[in-house]
Specification:
This protein is an all-alpha fold. The chain is built from 20 helices and no strands.
Length: 432
């Protein structure tokens, strides 16, 4: 009965508009208290203990640093320079600007790990450029929202860091390596329908009349941004620093590029950058810590074992269970961000992973692909919400465009399920 109350209280608070972190913590604390009435509330000592335990993990130190990196590169003008360089490579013509938007979003995914932040950075540059070239605003918002979803697959990824904390045997370097090939495949898969729809509907005819940036000049301008993911990922692979230390290196590199090279960040801008990234990091880490209380209550109340047994004994079989989890998590992804989904569902799903002997790194990539799909699935997709706000269009106007891109990324997920080596080959080769 108390276990049922846990989920009912959590869902009720969400429907009432209570922030997800507070809903997790309050529901968990209330159920811990009810389960320990006979011990004169001493059981409530578990609440502060698990609040701290949720934060006291070394890999989580990377989260505020990567959030700060995203804020720094957003203000440094790197996105605009990358766009000009990409246009110089692919040229002008119908369907080329959507291709550029997706490519730049994928590249920025190698610098920061937040999908909505990526949508904001790319959308601020690309939606206006696509509008000038004759693309409908709803189509532009769809492309940017979908492209930003690749961010949580391509390392560094905040979602992968949280997953590594929750799952034994899934290290951050292994997850980063595992997400690389599926992330690139997802980006390529998005390019196909984006270019096809643009040409089929005659979009971007004015694009061919716009000047093409000179290649060498745009390469020189974009070179400092191009070096960033090489420094972050290459440094980790070479053993120069851990993923957490790589995040700190990336912060100082971004400040150097923004303040010394491009001079788009002034000393007076640092307070705003630090405040914005500090607020976002605090929200993420607060949700992580409060989710620790929720996870403890799940374990203490014995919720996980009955749920696991009900799923594995449902008669659906291994792939039927996997299909059920995909449907559930894609649906949940429309309402919640990736970090929250991981914190709520991974403790429930981990026994199922262990029962079927699924590779935890492979399952982490599959789980992240599901979340990525949810991030641009209407009606409450978090990435699409950001791009629609920038484009000034209602989300319902994007449905006719987004459906094709959802299908293409879902195809990539099917490929990774059918061929697990797409996720496990690179970590194995790199020795993770």
């Amino acid at each position: 009965m108390i276990a049922t109350l846990l989920f009912v209280a959590f869902l009720a608070m969400l429907l009432l508009g209570v922030p997800i972190g507070a809903a997790l913590g309050l529901a968990g604390a209330a159920c811990i208290a009810l389960a320990n009435l006979d011990t004169q509330w001493y059981g409530l000592l578990a609440v502060p203990q698990n609040f701290y335990a949720g934060l006291g993990k070394y890999p989580l130190l990377a989260i505020p640093m990567f959030v700060l990196v995203g804020s720094i590169f957003d203000r440094s003008g790197v996105a605009l320079r990358l766009v000009n360089f990409a246009i110089a490579i692919v040229g002008r013509g119908p369907g080329m600007l959507p291709l550029v938007a997706i490519a730049v979003a994928m590249f920025l995914g190698g610098i920061s790990g937040s999908g909505p932040a990526n949508a904001a950075a790319v959308g601020a540059v690309m939606i206006a450029a696509m509008s000038r070239a004759g693309y409908p605003a709803s189509y532009s918002a769809s492309v940017v929202g979908a492209a930003a979803a690749t961010d949580i697959l391509i390392p560094p990824s905040v979602a992968f860091i949280v997953y590594s904390v929750l799952v034994p045997g899934a290290s951050v370097p292994a997850l980063f390596a595992a997400g690389m090939i599926p992330g690139v495949l997802a980006g390529i898969a998005l390019m196909v329908p984006a270019v096809w729809m643009a040409r089929r509907h005659g979009m971007g005819k004015a694009e061919a009349d716009l000047p093409r940036p000179p290649f060498w000049r745009s390469l020189r301008d974009a070179s400092w941004g191009l070096i960033a993911p090489v420094l972050i990922l290459g440094g980790m692979r070479a053993g120069w620093f851990t993923p957490t230390e790589a995040a700190v290196v990336a912060v100082f590199y971004g400040l150097f590029v923004g303040m010394v090279i491009h001079r788009t960040i002034q000393v007076r801008d640092l307070f705003t950058i630090l405040r914005e990234s500090g607020e976002l990091s605090a929200v993420i880490l607060l949700v992580v810590s409060l989710a620790g209380i929720f996870a403890y209550s799940l374990s203490t109340l014995g919720v996980i074992d009955p749920v696991t047994k009900a799923i594995v004994n449902s008669g659906l079989g291994e792939y039927g269970v996997l299909a059920l989890l995909i449907l559930m998590l894609v649906t949940v992804g429309m309402f919640l961000d990736g970090v929250s989904i991981f914190l709520i569902f991974v403790p429930l799903l981990l026994p199922i992973v262990q029962y079927y002997k699924w590779d935890p790194v492979w399952f982490g990539v599959i789980l992240t692909l599901k979340v990525a799909l949810g991030q641009f699935t209407p009606p409450l997709a978090v990435n699409l919400m950001v791009s629609c706000r920038i484009a000034g269009v209602p989300m319902e106007s994007t449905v006719r465009w987004v459906g094709w891109m959802l299908a293409s990324m879902a195809f990539v997920m099917v490929l990774v399920i059918a061929f697990p080596s797409l996720a496990t080959w690179l970590p194995r080769v790199l020795g993770y």
